[in-house]
Amino acid sequence: MSSFNNYYEDPFNENPFSNHFSSLSNDSENNIKYNDKLLNNRIDFNTNNTSILENNENEIVNSISKNVISKSLKNNKSLAKKYSRDNYCCATHCAFTLDKNKIPVIVISDALKITDMSGSSFIVYVIRTSEPEKNSTLLEVRRRYSEFASLRNLLHQYYPSLIIPPIPEKHSLTEYAMKQGKAKDNPKIIEKRKRMLQVFLNRLGKHPVFASLHIFHVFLEPGNWLEYEHKMAKVSIPINITSFDVSEELQYKEIKKHAKDFMKCISILSKAHHSLISIYQNLSHSYSSLGASYNGWSLHEVGLSPVLESVGQSSDSNRLALCRMTSLLDITIIESLQEYNAFSKIIFNIIAWYKNNYRQYYYICNSLNKKQKRLENLIRAEEKAEKRAKEKNEALLAKENRKNNLKKEKENKDDSSISISDDENINDEEKDSQKDDSLLHDSKYNELRNSTSYPYPETIPTSSVFDNDLNNSIFDNNNNNDNNNDLKNKSIFESLDQNEINPKIDDDDIFDNINKPSSSLKSPLSQDVNVFSNGIIHNEPMSTSNDVASSTAIATTTATGKINTIKKINKNTTKGSRKSEIENVKNSISRLQQLKESQYKEIIKTGKEIQYDFTYFQREKYSDFKQIFIHYAKINREYNEQMIKVWNNTIKIWNEIRV
Amino acid sequence: MDDFNTLTWDTGFGYTPTDEDVKNEEEDSKMEFEEEEHQKFVSFTVPNSDKLQIEICDPQKESDGSNFFTTYLIKSKNSLEIYSQKENEVRHRYTDFINLNNALISTYPSCIIPPLPEKKVIESFITGDRFSPEFTERRRNLLEIYMKRIARHPVIQNSDILKNFLESTDMTRAIEQAKNDNNTVLDGISDSIVNSFSKIKNTNEKFVKAKEKLDRLEVNLQHVEKLHTNIIKQEKSIENHMNEFALAAEKFGETDVDLENIVNEFSNTLRNVSKNIGEKATKEENVYVGNIKGYINYCQSYKDTLKARDQKQMDFEGLSSYLKSYSDELKKYENNPAHISSGITSFVSRKFDEMKGNDPKLRREEKMINLQKKIEELKPEVEKSEEDSKRFDDDITKEIEYFDNFQIMDFRKYLNDYIDIQVESHQKNKKLWDDLIEKFENTTV
Fold first, then answer.
1. Chain A residue closest in CA terms to B241
2. Is residue B325 situated within a structural domain?
3. Residue A224 — pLDDT band, cuts 50, 70, 90?
4. pLDDT tens-digit map of B230-241
5. Which range marks the domain in which residue B353 is found?
6. Looking at the complex, does the CB of residue A265 fall below 8 Å from at least one CB of chain B?
7. Do B177 and B194 belong to one domain?
8. How far apart are CA A30 and CA B82, in angstroms?
9. Closest partner CB to A629 (pick from B234, B430, B440)
10. Residue ranges per domain, chain A?
11. Which spans of this chain does the record mark as coiled coil (chain B) (predicted)?
12. CB A496 within 8 A of CB A248
């Protein structure tokens, strides 16, 4: 740690800003507080979104969620105004978010090789944050590559749903293969990293979310980053990404395909670019030998000498101009393409992550559905059992009345037969419920397959609304309200339904707990049967056991009240277990409901975030590529201009000779 | 990038010039310039070289009943005295040019007659229809270059053969001329074949230098031509690869509806730029490299003329050595009447003569008379060949000067054309990029 201090010293003590910053960054408690506030802010921002969603549901379905986000941003802004200065976590925050047109420019002005106490050396990048027009430096700090990586990791930890700009790879294989030496010793790699890290920081600075993050501000401010990072990492919110079998499916197929195509095109494009560049390089070789041969020729000629010489010089200039153009083109095109390749990978990851979230949500819905069915059955069984019990009581009362009123022997037989029939009814009832239960377990899949398999209508519309929202927003950037997209979305959603109702899913670990209580329900019932059948071996399927039970019941009709009492005990035990079961199920339902709601919120939230960031990314991509093309055009134009100048100059020289 | 700087710098030189070397070289060449400046730039033009202007145009397919051929309209303007009209127009076919060329070669052996575009070369150049517009245009261009080179030559522009060619379609005179002159030339050559393998005895510094210079020029031209051909190849592959790049960009645009517009704009510009580069390469090939190739052939004609001069000198030298040997032998007889040549051969010949019954004395007198006769015959021949050779030398001295100046003029023009091609192409591309930049910078997101 001590080795870091030497390069963390603030070289801009005269700067009025720096005092303020150092006081802020020294107070690490403050940092956390600010950060918490920020996190809260973020949650506010998202709840704002959802509230808007709930309020103007129709509006959102029709209009694109872009508006929602801009609205929520406006809300956020007005909030910011409300809290005025309090809402800013630090002065850097002010600088970055005060005026959209005056976002500070971050420049990596230098890369220095530093050797620490132990003798090992590393490269630090001098990050200078300055006002866009005034050119005055606001902040300067030195960070090493690993710190950039840790910043990115930290951001990813907190904001898994956002597209975090990529940083250059640690070890490019081709670079490694070409140059055996370490990356830090290769000036080309360092230069490239310098440029790409600068792009990374500026992207963060322009990004509406990242720019207002205190993590980002601390990174730009002088101070020990690793300590701060360490603290932040401890506080980090756990992210549960459950490892589901992610096969080719789900609603983001289109986006994924899109991203894949994008990647493929990038590789084709860079290949084409490479071959073009290599020819340019060959051409510059040829021009240099052409220049040499003209110069050589000019030595042999008398009258033509100056003319040939000037042509030779022009050829040399041509070579230089070509070299310059090729290297510039290489930097702009290849590095941008590499960056966007990394971007597509990041998008892949985010989609996969979201897919998992969505699945989790679906599983919760599914098990909740099962639970509620179970509960319904249990309640029904309970009600029936109570009804029977009442009827029995009434029957018993009537019997007693009859006993009292009519008297003696004959009626005894009738009595028992009635009670047996009652018992049989109850047994049937119980067996029905048991059947239901087994059906629920065995043919869950079939049941869910039916069109009515979505037992919770309220979840589907909202999720589909949300889903469409998201897809719309993503596709809407490409295609304003194209009907095809709606169709696509529908089909995506349908395919999702089909895919989601997958028997495999039910076997997943998470739902084992949920399944357990329902399976434990089975055992008391079967025990009942066993008790009832009085030691008769009874492991056969339910339907036959039913028959056997009834036959045994008939066989034992002659047997007297003893059996009745046993039955009563049985009934009481089933009653008790059923009640506790209902309680259990109810509990788990409420638990699941809570889980479902939180998960739903999470999905909505992350969906919004993804959708929002994807929109932002698309917009950035558009302007980025426009910039790339402009750069490309400008480099080419510069080459052409240079050559026009060179040749015109040659003609000028000739005219002077002639005069 | 830095690596290949040093690698390719010295190709063609064989050594890497140090700074000092370069400095010295520069100083040297500066000095040279100062010395030669006046003479060099004043004598750029050849006198009267602009008095006859020739233009070839309007190729037409014609038939003489059984064969088809192409005729070209030859327009000429002149300010020369031998022509009765200031402007002439006449149609000729390719065969007529061959006859003209042959006639000129035989009539003016001391002039560098530029090479006529070869029939076979042209045909192999563009495989396919002999009457295709590309073929006729190419041939027209080459014939025009040929005619212009002839027309500017101070000697040939006043030739009757050329005058006849420019004024009438009738070529019989030229054909005859070629035959006649060929015969007389052949007569002279037949004698000299004997010692055609021997070397020139009195080498003339001037012509040796001219030959060396010509060889260097040829080497340089070949070198430059090769490099330019290489560059043209590379430019053409840039055209292809740029198109591929544009295609890749378009595919890329298809994946993203947002980007499609700007990507298409971009790839359109790329396509146009690549088209320009391709056109530039084709122009360089047809104009500049074509000119250089033509010049390499021209050098060959120059060489041939120099060889003819050497031949003339050798003729003279051979004849005079004959004359010398005859007169030497005659002197021997005169100085020593009883002299019997020693040696086995003379002994054998003497015995042979004796056996025949010839009187050696009589034979000696006969021989002396014969020698006298031969010497009498040879003397005018030697004088004539000396005169010939001297005239040839004078002519060729002028010719060398003409060629040098023509070369300077020609290459100035060629290089000018080359630069025009470069500038034009760069300006076109610059405009394309300008338009694209303007479009992109004006459209807002």
1. A276
2. yes
3. confident
4. 999 999 999 999
5. 185-445
6. yes
7. no
8. 108
9. B440
10. 87-227, 261-400+576-658
11. 200-244
12. no
- Which residue among B183, B202, B229 closes a domain? B183
Could you tell me if A104 and A130 are in contact, meaning their C-beta atoms sit under 8 angstroms apart? yes
Structure tokens given for A269: 């494009």
Kindly state whether residue B33 falls inside one of the protein's structural domains: no
Distance from the Cα of A484 to chain B's closest Cα (Å) equals: 13
pLDDT at A620: 85
The pLDDT tens digits for B37-70 are 433 444 456 667 778 888 898 888 888 777 778 8
DSSP string, B109-134: TTS-PPPPPPHHHHHHHS-S-TTSHH
Of B419, B434, B445, Cβ closest to residue A637: B434
Q: In the prediction, which pLDDT does B243 show? A: 93
Q: In what order do the strands lie in the sheet with A105-115?
A: A105-115, A121-130, A137-144
Does residue B31 sit at the A interface (CB-CB below 8 Å)?
no
Does the CB of B259 have a partner CB in chain A at under 8 Å? Answer: yes
A498 touching chain B per CB within 8 A: no
pLDDT of residue A20: 35
Average pLDDT over residues B165-182: 72
Q: What is the ipTM of this complex?
A: 0.76
Q: What is the 3-state secondary structure (H, E, C) of A554-610?
A: HHCCCCCHHHHHHHHHHHHHHHHHHHHHHHHHHHHHHHHHHHHHHHHHHHHHHHHHH
Min Cα separation B232/chain A (Å): 9
Query: What residues of chain A, 89 to 118, have a C-beta less than 8 Å from chain B?
Result: none
B contact residues 233-252, partner A, Cβ 8 Å cutoff = 234-235, 237-238, 241-242, 244-245, 247-249, 251-252
A401 in reach of chain B (CB within 8 A): no
Between A151-160, A247-256, A285-294, A405-414, the lowest mean confidence (pLDDT) is in: A247-256
Which residue of B lies nearest to A265 if distances are taken between CA atoms?
Answer: B252
Is B115 inside any structural domain?
yes
B377 and B307 in a common domain: yes
Among residues A214, A567, A215, the alpha carbon closest in space to that of A385 is found at A567
Tell me which residues of chain A, numbers 300 to 359, contact chain B at a CB-CB cutoff of 8 Å.
300-308, 311, 314, 323, 326-327
Q: Which CATH architecture group holds A87-227?
A: 2-Layer Sandwich (3.30)
Contact of A205 with A106, CB cutoff 8 Å: yes
Q: Are residues B213 and B174 in the same domain?
A: no
| Band of residue B120 on the pLDDT scale cut at 50, 70, 90 | low
> A646: pLDDT confidence band, cut at 50, 70 and 90?
very high
* Token duo for residue A616: 């932002």
Q: What is the pTM of this model?
A: 0.65
Given a cut of 80, whether residue B423 has pLDDT beyond it is yes
The topology (CATH level 3) of A261-400+576-658 is Substrate Binding Domain Of Dnak; Chain:A; Domain 2 (1.20.1270)
